[in-house]
Amino acid sequence: MKGARKRNLIYADPLPITFSPIENRFAVTVLGIFGISPFRVLNPRCEGTFDPATRSVWITNRRDSVILWKCGFFGKGNLSRSEPSWLARQSRIGTATGRLTSEEVTAKRRAERKQFKLDRARAIAAAAAEAEAAFAEGRIIPAEETRPSIPSAATWKPSEFTRNIAVPSSERCQEAGDLGAELSDDMEHLQLTLAEAFFLAWALDCLTIYHPKRPEPMTLDEIWTAFQTAHLPLHLGSSLSQTHVLRPDNPFLINYVFLHHYRSLGWVVKSGVKFCVDYLLYKRGPVFHHAEFAMVLIPVYEDPDDAESSPFTISNVEPFTWQWLSTINRVNSQVQKTLVLCYVTIPALSRLSVAELSSPSCFERYVIREIIIRRFVPARMRD
Amino acid sequence: MDDTLEQPNPFSNSSAREEEDEQGSSGDEDGGLDWTKLPQGNSTARPIIPKRGEKDFEPAQGGGSGLQRHNLERARAAMFDAIRSTRAISSKSVSYAVWYPDLARAHVTVARGVHFTSMGHSVQRPSSRSSSSSGKPQKRLELLPEEALYLVEKGALFCWKASREGEGGDVEWDSASQGAPMSVQQAYAEMIGKQDLTLDRYLAFAYLRRLGYIVTRAKSPSPAYPVPAAYPISQKRSTASIFSRVLAALCSPFRRFLSWLIQPSTTWWRPLVHRRWLHHNMDYPSIFRTLRFFPSGHSVPLQSQPPRSIFYHLHKPNSPYRKTMPPPPDFAIVVVNARTTPIPTLAELTCMYEGLPVVPPPVPRKRRPSFEKQVPGPKYSPSQRARSEFSTIPPDWVVVAFPVQLLVVPRQMQHQSRLTLSWHSDKEISPSSSLLWMWAPVSFFRFGQGAFEEWPMA
Fold it and tell me: Which superkingdom, per the lineage (chain A) (predicted)?
């Protein structure tokens, strides 16, 4: 319970933009009369560097990566599973104190589960041996009688031995302790996908993106072109003029439309590659709940000719086979997620002017529709 | 994100299954049956629905033990006992029909049993018997090919083939003079392919029928076929009364002017503008609202394409069903072959949703309290509730996907308690001695329209 309250405090803000109230009580009343908000907008003005090779924006500043993670769960630590926790893990190695990082929690759980499986296999083998012996004597032990002796996931408790598994041995401690002193500075950076970076830079205006080569901030115009060029196949990269670069089916645009739409609805959008899908939607954030929806992003061309002339290889344009749909649905119902096919309609190239394509105004033309997939088992849904 | 400590546990199948029940997504119908649960040896006893047995966790070292071999032998013997019995139906409960190939209908001359409460429809046919002088039309009960085939296969119907084409309308059926009895094989050969019935569609029909669902054609094959009542007009669209609409129309120019006056001007390069006067984007809900500008949802028109049409309507088994006035169906079904077709495209889906109503999201289901005690911490219950609120699934239509391979399964396996089949042998008339049911692995998917845009999280 205490943990939950702490979480609610740490991750209270859903976006990096925060509001600070004016302290003077009298001023608040007066402002209220004139319809003026008693809050001030605090913009963290984070900074990052565009990296075209990895198609990401790097946040190397510790303060900024903490802000972007805590307020809206943007990005991913390049040495961590999600939250940039590399430094915390390194400094913990020597001391074995403090809160476990999520990676360590997982490692511990896996060790416990392994032990549970061993225990269970042993108990089952013992029960089978007993039944076999009884059979040799001419008795048959019904399966129900052996059940209590076999541990189940609900009854099994980790023993002292397994509980200590996660703690490294003393030898390793010492070694790591020496290392820890050297690695006091953070080797990790936060990686933002291009869509996330553009959302922060353009929609929320709280991220300044620096040029990959020169130490100067990029303008939104430059970002718009650069992020789309980054998705071009390498051999086309620089040889094309701007009009060829800007196409409505650029993967950056499609992904951005998706991310922005669900972000604007208040969902936290994360990669779903672990579950065979494109994105996962979290309510409030990964620290609060498991992801609820597994989203497959399916681009739909308004004009089929555009698909043929496209220089990009865009996945999911061809409809799935039933086998593949069953596969991803199985995977996701196993982890209690609802599979959603999210269709993003790409406007026809002929309908868009160059002016529209060279600014975010083309976003108005994309349409998003969801189809929710569930397996229907007639034997179970009779009433 | 990672799965929890909960493992598939071979020793508490019942609770695990209950949990999956909520998801409706387990696949235990793919498994085998435990034949030992069938009544031993006697073919006259009424069979009960067999339950699955339990698997040993892992094979014993050094091959099967004496106990395992004993168990296997017992199960195998039970299976053979179950199959060995002669299949028979009672002459008192069997119905009779005449199949007219040119009409693609089977005329039921003797209707017995509960099947006819939800199958068959009455048609007026001119009494065209050459000997009878009256050409007065008479009502008679007719079955669609799939209905007739299903009943023949079940052993509930004995079908004759009309020897003279176009014959009909006579009340007294005289088998000797007018036709030949049909075997099940012959029924399959003759009825599949008639009236748009394909083998895939028939398998879907038979599978759902066996489970007790009421399956009707979505598109009436003839004017006499009963048409279901229209869906009630969805509430969402009818809420705006005429008065409020007129008021809205009157106010809109004024409101537009006001918003022009108040709203900070936005350019596409700067979508989010904070303004302290009138609290523009000064809190999270309003920021999220401002950022919501993508057109979304299924009401946005789409350039449409030719459809894959809905073939069957489905009513749940316990729904109050009247044959003459069918209620609006619970599901619409499209039958496709999973090996040869991909999943429908968005355009096809949109076409199929047309005419189906938008139903409000389902009420969250309560979990069984007894079950909750057994499992420590029902981890997903809050999210599950939210999900069911969320998925505005409704115009439920189901795609039935068939892999091509057919498993051949002896028919005794397929008993459902609901579909009563009598095993008395006062007078045996088995239509064919080696009657087999074809059984295709059928998979159903429910495609529901999402409405995320109507349920913002913030």
Answer: Eukaryota
- B346 vs A132, A300, A366: nearest CB: A300
ipTM of predicted complex? 0.74
Q: Which of A275, A206, A214, A220 is nearest to A42 (CA)?
A: A206
Q: Terminal CA-to-CA distance of chain A, rounded, Å? A: 39
Q: Which residues contact B137 (CB under 8 A, 6 or more apart)?
A: B124, B125, B126, B127
Residue that wins the pLDDT comparison between A1 and B230: B230
Active site residue A70: no
Residues in chain A with CB shorter than 8 Å from the CB of B387 are: 292-293, 338
Active site residue A337: yes
> What are the average pLDDT values for consecutive 10-residue runs of chain A, which has 383 residues?
82 90 81 80 92 93 93 93 86 66 86 89 82 80 70 73 47 46 73 96 94 92 92 66 75 95 93 94 91 94 88 88 88 92 92 89 90 80 70
pLDDT digits (tens, 9 = 90+) for B175-221: 445 678 888 889 999 999 888 888 878 888 888 888 888 988 988 88
Residue spans of the domains in chain A: they are 102-165, 241-383
pLDDT band at B343 (very low <50, low <70, confident <90, very high): confident
Q: What is the dihedral of CA B399, B405, B410, B412, to 10 degrees?
A: -20
**Would you state the structure tokens that stand for residue B130, as one six-digit string?**
């050459």
- Does B450 lie at the interface with A, CB-CB under 8 angstroms? yes
Q: Are A183 and A24 in contact (CB under 8 A)?
A: no
Measure the CA angle with vertex A284, ends A280 and A289; round to 5°. 70
Residues of chain A contacting residue B336, judged by C-beta atoms under 8 Å apart = 322
Q: In this predicted model, what pLDDT tens digit does every residue of A178-224 receive, in sequence order?
A: 454 555 677 899 999 999 999 999 999 999 999 999 999 999 999 99
Q: What is the total residue count of chain A?
A: 383
A260 is catalytic: no
Taking the mean position of all CA atoms in its chain, how far away is CA B349? 18
Per domain, the residue ranges of chain B are 28-53+67-85, 95-197
| A153/chain B closest Cα distance in angstroms | 5
The residue from A11, A256, A282, A301 that is catalytic is A282
Q: Which residue of B has its CA nearest to A289?
A: B383
State pLDDT tens for residues A84-143: 888 888 877 656 566 777 888 889 899 999 998 888 888 888 887 888 888 888 777 776
Q: What's the CATH fold of domain B95-197? A: MutS, DNA mismatch repair protein, domain I (3.40.1170)
Which of B291, B300, B371 has the most A C-beta neighbours within 10 Å, making it the best mutation to test the interface with A?
B291
Window 26-85 of B: residues touching A by CB (8 A cutoff) are: 26, 29, 54, 56-58, 60, 65-67, 70
User: What is the SS3 assignment for B71?
Assistant: helix
Structure token digits, residue A292: 């609820």
Q: What does pTM read for this prediction? A: 0.73
Q: Do the beta carbons of residue B122 and residue B141 sit within 8 Å?
A: yes
Contact A34 B23 (CB under 8 A): no
Which chain B residue lies closest to A258 (C-alpha atoms)? B294
Q: How far apart are CA A293 and CA B384, in angstroms?
A: 11
Cross-chain Cβ contact B302/A345 below 8 Å? yes
Query: Does CATH place domain A241-383 in 3.40.1350.10?
Result: yes
Tell if the CB–CB gap between B316 and A382 is shorter than 8 Å: yes
Query: What's the half-sphere exposure (Cβ side, CA atoms, 13 Å) at A353?
Result: 4
Whole-number pLDDT of residue B375 = 29
Q: H/E element holding A268?
A: strand A267-271
